[in-house]
Each structure stands twice: as structure tokens, then as C-alpha cells.
Amino acid sequence: MTDFRLAPEALAEAAAALVSVRRGAPRLPHLPDRLLPRTDAEGYAIQAQVTEALGWRVAGWKAGLGPNGDTSSAPLYAPLLGHSPARFEAGGLSLFGIEGEIAFRLALDLPPRGSPHDTGSVRDAIASAHAAIEVLDSRYQSLAGLSRFEMLADTFNNGGFVAGVPQAGWRAIDLADLAVSLTIDGEEIFAGRGTHPVGDPLAPVVWLANFLNARGAALAAGDYVTTGTCTGFATAHAGAHVRVDFSELGEAEVSFV
């Protein structure tokens, strides 16, 4: 299969359909077959056109790196960024998906270059680590039956991001062995220790820096990077209060009002 089956006008039409949902149109059961992405390249191309059409500032990135080597990235948009304790309007959400994550914020740019970024250079560029909550939502009616490529096109189900208090001394914390708990309305939904999907939460940041580098893009000072769920996927609801606690890394909270 070639990287692109869809014509440029089909990619643009698919992006427009997803953008229209963000602007109030009904959610989609799927993209029409003639607009359906079937490769990563098509998914990322639609994702990029969604970002351009929305005109929203990119405040950071989702970096997905799975234990089997599967990868994904998507922008975190500034209008959907909150700082704990955050309040999100429930009316614009349908899934109310919740994931507790470890995130980082950059102090320095990681500009495009001819050689890969290594772990040391990425670590040196980071200002702080954060307990974080990713809010999962979709421009589709349901996640059931969606392909990876449809989700890539839709910023891999991102609906919001909440950053906890910055921890500048994160290098002294064993991020691979943190205790974590997730509560919704005071009920513990998840508890565990050392639950990051690949162990070291810095590894997805290094992958992302090089993924963007290969595309002529870059992580920039001030960007957040959130590194995948440590709590699995949970579902909240309108009116819910959600809290994730990463022990010495701190906590993050969000209420859906």
C-alpha cells in the first residue's frame, strides 16, 4: 500500500468534516469511505489540516509509545489546556474519558537537526515534570470500531489536558516507580505503582522529538508533552470531580461543570 490513497481534496474534506464537529455540527458515525484514512500518513495529514483550519495555538503534544513499539502523536491545543485545579465545561464533551499521565514541559527548543536527539539532550531541555490528566473525547459518535487512522486524524481522541503543579526537581524522582491513584467523585477507580506503558516516561518524549524532527518540525520551549496513560481509561460524567495523585510528583484535578 502506498502512503497516500486519498487525493489532496479528500484529505481536506475529511479535515473539514472533523472541524465542523468541533464547531457544533453533530458527531460523525465514521468518515465516509471515500474520505477514510487507511495509513498513518493519511491520518497525520488530516490531523495537520484540522490544526491549520482551527487556527488554535499548539501548546504541546501527546506522545504515545507502546510496549510493542506502536507510536502516535497529536497536538494539544491551547484552548483545551487547563491548570489544576481545572474546570471544563461538560456541554462540549461526549466521552468524558479520563487518563492519569506523567507530562513534561520544555524549557528549551529542540530545533530540527540532521542527527537524532538523544535522551541526554531531551532531558536537558525539560523544565519540569507534572502529574496530568488527559480528557478523552471524539468527533465521532463512538470509539467502537474506529481504526487507528481515523483516531489519528482526530488528534487521537484528545479533548483536553490538565497539568498539575510543576516539579522542577523531577530528576530526583524515580518516575518509573511512582505510586498512582485515580479517583472520580471520591471513589478510587485505579491504584498502582510503576504503571507507565514503557516504564520510563521520558522515552516517549525522546521518540516524539525525533518523530517531529523527521517531519521538519520541533518541540519548542513552553510545550507540554504528555506521555501516555498510567491509569488505563476511565469514564467520568457531567458534574464529576476527577483527581489523579502521583505521590511525590504531585496531583492534578479537574471538574466537569
Summarize the structure.
The chain has 257 residues and is of the alpha+beta class. The protein has helices at 8-22, 40-54, 119-124, 148-153, 202-214, and strands spanning 58-65, 71-77, 81-83, 86-88, 97-106, 126-136, 158-163, 179-184, 187-193, 224-229, 234-235, 241-245, 251-256.
Describe the structure.
- By secondary structure, the protein is an alpha+beta fold.
- It has a single domain, classed as Fumarylacetoacetase-like, C-terminal domain (Fumarylacetoacetate hydrolase, domain 2, Alpha-Beta Complex), CATH 3.90.850.
- 21% of the residues lie in helices and 31% in strands.
- It is built from five helices and 13 strands.
- Strands 1, 2, 3, 5, 6, 7, 10 and 11 form an eight-stranded mixed β-sheet that branches. A five-stranded mixed β-sheet has the order 4-13-12-8-9, with no helix packed on it.
- Helix 1 crosses helix 2.
- The chain is globular, with a radius of gyration of 18 Å.
- The protein starts with 7 loop residues before the first helix and ends with a strand.
Number of domains: 1
Helix/strand order = HHEEEEEHEHEEEHEEEE
How many strands, which pairing sense, and closed or not: the largest β-sheet? 8 strands, mixed
Number of helices: 5
How much of the residues is beta strand, in percent? 25-35%
Identify the overall geometry: globular
- Helical residue percent band: 10-25%
Name the CATH homologous superfamily: Fumarylacetoacetase-like, C-terminal domain
Strand elements, count: 13
Q: Report Rg.
A: 18 Å
- CATH topology descriptor: Fumarylacetoacetate hydrolase, domain 2
Separation of the first and last Cα atoms: 46 Å
CATH classification class: Alpha Beta
Q: What class do helices, strands and sheet pairing give?
A: alpha+beta
Do you know the CATH architecture?
Answer: Alpha-Beta Complex
Q: Unreliable segments (pLDDT under 50, ≥5 consecutive)?
A: none
- Would you tell me the overall average pLDDT? 96
